[in-house]
Design goal:
It contains six helices and twelve strands. 31% of the residues lie in helices and 26% in strands. It is α+β, with helices and mostly antiparallel strands and 248 residues long. The chain has one domain (2-246): ApbE-like domains (T-fold).
Length: 248
């Protein structure tokens, strides 16, 4: 069963290869993502994060999920030498560099708890793949050419029980900034894909590594259990030492 909806302004795809999946199964996951969008969207005037940024909600009034995201964001900031920071140059909070992967990871745990072992969740190119597809093969994930994202795939990955996240400028422009410089990361790279043990880990470290510029791929190389693929502004790719074991 494969279904998709537009949520968070992005295409959300849920594909479950287990035979006992129903529309109710996918609706449960879509409803969870709608809840996440309502709580964490900086574009919604009535979201909790907007209320925090507008000064209407104080730390003592944060929901449990908001407290968790702030805690994880601070943890990630420390682990990346400050290159991950949800505070924007304007002084507001934008946790989107972590929330999407965190939400997909939580949705995956919901499916696993409900007895599903073979599925794929994709939100805007951030992916969690568990088990096998309906052909009993590993899931296939394409990495887009950042210069021709609509028409060309530069690498095809074959993964199982892994998360894949891509940070870059080709979809949303210069939106990732170097927190140390407090400016967008016009740093010579246009795309950085990270494979991690799950999508939460892949997503947060992809965001931080992209902010590091060309040093980011070296950061990923040193992380245990992670691989990366970087494309610079000249179209030159640099990959970590174990990346090719995931490629077709």
């Amino acid at each position: 069963m494969k279904r998709q909806k537009i949520i968070m302004g992005m295409t959300v795809v849920v594909e479950i290869a287990d035979r006992h999946a129903t529309e109710e199964t996918s609706e449960k996951i879509f409803s969870y993502f709608e809840y996440i969008d309502q709580k964490f969207s900086t574009y919604k005037a009535d979201s909790e994060i907007t209320g925090i940024n507008d000064g209407l909600i104080k730390p003592g009034g944060y929901s449990a999920d908001m407290q968790e995201v702030f805690r994880l964001s601070e943890e990630t900031k420390k682990q990346t030498g400050g290159y991950f920071d949800i505070r924007t140059p304007e002084g507001t909070y934008d946790p989107s560099g972590l929330v999407k992967g965190w939400a997909i990871h939580n949705a995956s745990k919901m499916l696993l708890k409900d007895g599903f072992n073979n599925f794929y969740i994709d939100i805007g190119g951030d992916i969690q793949a568990c088990g096998k597809n309906n052909r009993k093969e590993q899931w296939r994930v394409g990495i887009r050419n950042p210069f021709r994202p609509e028409t060309e795939i530069v690498k095809v990955l074959s993964i199982e029980d892994r998360g894949v996240a891509t940070s870059g400028t080709y979809a949303r422009g210069e939106h990732i900034y170097n927190p140390h410089a407090r400016v967008p990361s016009a740093n010579g790279i246009v795309s950085l894909t990270v494979i991690g043990p799950d999508i939460y880990e892949a997503d947060r470290f992809a965001t931080a590594a992209f902010a590091m510029g060309k040093d980011g791929i070296g950061f990923i190389e040193k992380l245990d259990g992670f691989e990366g693929y970087m494309i610079d502004k000249d179209g030159i790719a640099t990959l970590t030492s174990g990346f090719e074991k995931y490629t077709l």
